[in-house]
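Good morning N.,

You mentioned wanting to compare the apo and holo forms, so I went ahead and generated the holo version with protoporphyrin IX containing FE. This is what I fed in:
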Amino acid sequence: MSAIVWAWAVVAVTFVWLGLQQKKKHLSLPPGPKGLPVIGNLRDLTLTGLWLEARKWAQQYGEVVYLHVFGQGLLFVNSYEAAVDLLEKRGAIYSDKPKMVMAGELCGCENMIGLTPYGDRLRRQRKLMLQALGQNRVHEYHPLLEIQTQNLLQGMLNSPDESQGIIRRYTGGLSLLIVYGYRVVSNNDRILEMADESLELLSNHIAAAGKVWLVDLFPPLKYVPSWFPGAGFKRNAAIWKQKMEDFVNVPYDYTKAEMRKGTAVPCYVSMLLDDAALENKEQTVDNQRDFDIRWTANSLYAASFDTTISAISHFFLAMIQHPEILHRAQKEIDAVVGNNRLPDFSDRPNLPYVNAIVNEVLRIASPVPLGLPRRITEDNVYKNMYIPKGTLVFGNNYNMARNPAVYPNPDAFDPERYLEEGVDEATMKARDPRNYVFGFGRRRCPGAWMIDSSLWIAIASMLASFDIRKAVDDFGNAIEPEVVYDNSVFTTLKPFKYDIRPRSAQAVKVIREAKGLSD
Ligand code: HEM
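and this is what came out, ligand included:
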């Protein structure tokens, strides 16, 4: 290209850039609730159930809503279309993560994938996760998922009153088995308890949505000595950091020790360590690969626990509230699977109503309702609204799941909406909650295929085997479940009572004869 053409190109780009700067000055921020001087919307943020507030703001202000806390902008992206426009199409500037001084630097979580900045390291690590859990690999885990589900059923059969604990053990056990090849065989398993405690700390204290640490707003506060009055956050951070380090290292070191002994169960970690050693002629794993496997493994475990618990507890809630849905699903399973065996993955295409229940569970639960926060790396203009660089961005999938234009009567649990006849193909496609509950673009959930399978087999098997009803009190009155969220990032529910019992003597026989995991 000649020098003149170059010069014209530079002038044109400069003009466009200057025009944009000029335009931005005249544009307003997206609408949102009015804040107070200095603290902004601090008082509008709630520690649990922020998504309920965010839905109200979406109804009042529209598809993008802007708030600020001490000048830190927060953008809620409320419609699917806006999320695709911003989080997917403009992924180059909407995929970064906030630098969280408290969670990252002080509590040692900076290498968790959900907090990893957008760049080469993230791309490398996401590639590893998708290599092991992507759409074309997930069927390899099906036998493991079936066995773990049989275990779940056996636990529920033996101790129906402890089913909530059994579900926690199933969920934690499933992830520990798939990620680390670690078998959980008792409710008070050491690693399971440690992971449980770390996750509670992480999502309700360290990185709670709706909680703003002053040190994140004023990073120099991190230099305040721990003994200084008001520096309790530093004392807590020191204790939490040790717990987080154990959470990352203990299960990983377990798998490596098992591999050295030659007794490791094939799993995410062993598979990737084996691949890495094979690639390297000296049969060792370099530090970078070791680091990547260690941290992706921890992130997979951390991200799968509360999300799965949320989905399963919403399934129970829906079944006790809608016995007619439970019975219709059981009828479908009886007709396709019969009552001499449990459902397996080969039955899935023939169980449309069960599939519709799984869709509706994902939609109603919206397990990560506001996504995980992103950070925009450049000033941006969207539909004539100015979004400043550094704004934290939340994909409000809870609101997308309740869009009345896509889901008539959106608060009702209604699997029928996925089976409705006479609805055009585009509308049916738009109703699939997988379009948004797993997030968007370059940070979309890498566990999406895994959970789709594990949730399906668990729900199909529980429907095939148990009746699930409201519990009754001492006077025989049905106890209405109280829906209370107990977490600030995930829609996990405070435990509620229900009555679960095998459907028949034949169901008991089938569960007892299933393989399960040997203790
Ligand atoms: C129903 C269950 C689940 C839901 C609804 C869900 C949803 C999400 C969402 C919304 C995000 C943020 C995506 C974004 O920023 O756009 C995410 C991230 C993530 N999820 Fe899931 N998830 C689920 C289960 C799982 C499971 C089972 C695993 C692991 C096996 C997993 C691993 C991850 C990881 C590692 C990230 C961080 C990705 C990154 O920052 O690049 N998730 N998930």
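The pocket of protoporphyrin IX containing FE is lined by residues 113-114, 126, 133, 299-300, 303-304, 307, 311, 367-368, 371-372, 374, 395, 437-440, 443-447, 450-451 (CB under 6 Å).

Happy to go through it together on a call whenever suits you.

Best,
F.
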